[in-house]
Design goal:
It contains 10 helices and 16 strands. It is of the alpha/beta class. The strands form 2 sheets. It has an 11-stranded mixed beta sheet with strand order 1-8-2-3-7-4-6-5-9-10-11, sandwiched between helices. Strand 9 and strand 10 form a beta hairpin. The longest helix has 18 residues.
Length: about 350
């Protein structure tokens, strides 16, 4: 299969919409990461997503809409808390878990009785959904387990020859996937942190719970109610280790480990914050600790750069989990299989 990479314009959106209606896959930009989209109401098309990604089919997908008016046919109910969150944060980087309607294939929901719904703020994504006239089911447009793509070229690296079209809308602004909030219970639960932070949700609802598995793997037999919960995700080929503690202790521990691993013949890189200095050792910046959104925007690109460089070990600084930092640590933790050393 030949994969076309086209800049977003009226013609390429029309082509993408046609492919979606025909049951094909399209890589497309959102404000979070690039998505790998199919008609959410076409079970055969949705199965192609899992095949292209090499993704297990017990991992649910998010269904994207272009306006709130498209939601009622897709769900059985919209709880009051969900309506408040929609008004506060949509369009935007938030997915709501709602009771699914019968029209949603089990391939989308991984057999669950719920479905994740998102209204993206990215105008190109909404234009594609509108033009297709279908809700679009889409995970991140990368091979399963790899770092999520934040540019069209990242998508091409993983999906060349696997899908017919990638729409290039430039770099993603947020850089980590949407917050996933289960709104089906009495107290909403954040299953996956993202650009809509727990603090932001609390200001709207007065209460929210963060799922215990945000910073730990699911136990055997646990059901993944959200994408990004069950399997190792976002991982570079390098062995990633996270160091957490007082900044001066983290820097000292990373420098010591860097030198030890280098002597052993490993190719080592450090992922850290600009305020910390590593004496000329290979360093990939996650931005300033004063601007935590920079780490969110840069993390996946930095993980992919490790692979491009051929690094075998990645020594990562933990970041503050306040605000969007929780999303950064969730992604970094899963990339490192939660190998976190307290120093």
């Amino acid at each position: 299969m030949k994969t076309q990479l086209l800049k977003v314009n009226e013609d390429s959106i029309a082509l993408g919409a046609k492919l979606i209606r025909e049951g094909e896959l399209v890589g497309f930009p959102t404000e979070t990461v690039y998505g790998l989209g199919a008609n959410a109401l076409d079970a055969e098309a949705v199965v192609k997503i899992f095949e292209a990604k090499g993704r297990p089919q017990d991992n649910p997908l998010i269904t994207h809409v272009s306006c709130v008016e498209e939601i009622p046919p897709l769900v059985r109910a919209i709880p009051a808390a969900a309506k408040k969150l929609m008004e506060a944060f949509w369009p935007g980087p938030m997915t709501l878990i709602l009771p699914k309607a019968d029209c949603i294939p089990n391939a989308v929901s991984a057999g669950l009785d719920t479905v994740g719904i998102r209204l993206p703020s990215n105008a190109d994504a909404r234009a594609l959904i509108r033009a297709a006239g279908r809700p679009i089911a889409a995970p991140s447009a990368n091979r399963s387990g790899r770092p999520s793509p934040t540019t069209a070229l990242h998508v091409l690296e993983d999906m060349d020859g696997r899908i017919p079209l990638i729409l290039d809308g430039g770099a993603c602004q947020v850089g980590v996937e949407s917050s996933v909030i289960d709104a089906t219970g009495d107290v909403p639960v954040i299953l996956r942190p993202g650009g809509i932070t727990p603090e932001m949700v609390e200001r709207v609802l007065g209460h929210v719970r963060v799922d215990e598995h945000v910073m730990s793997p699911l136990r055997e037999g646990d059901v993944a109610r959200s994408p990004g919960m069950k399997y190792k995700h976002y991982a570079p080929k390098a062995k990633a280790i996270i160091f957490s503690g007082a900044p001066e202790h983290v820097v000292a521990a990373i420098c010591k480990r860097y030198d030890e691993q280098t002597v052993k013949g490993e190719r080592v890189a450090i992922l850290g914050l600009d305020e910390h200095h590593y004496g000329g050792r290979t360093f990939l910046s996650l931005g300033s600790e004063k601007r935590p959104q920079e780490a969110a925007a840069r993390l996946f690109a930095a993980l992919r750069e490790l692979d491009e460089r051929g690094d075998t070990v990645a020594l990562c600084e933990a970041v503050d989990t306040a605000g969007i930092g929780l999303a950064v640590m969730n992604r970094m933790g899963r990339a490192a299989a939660f190998d976190i050393e307290q120093v």
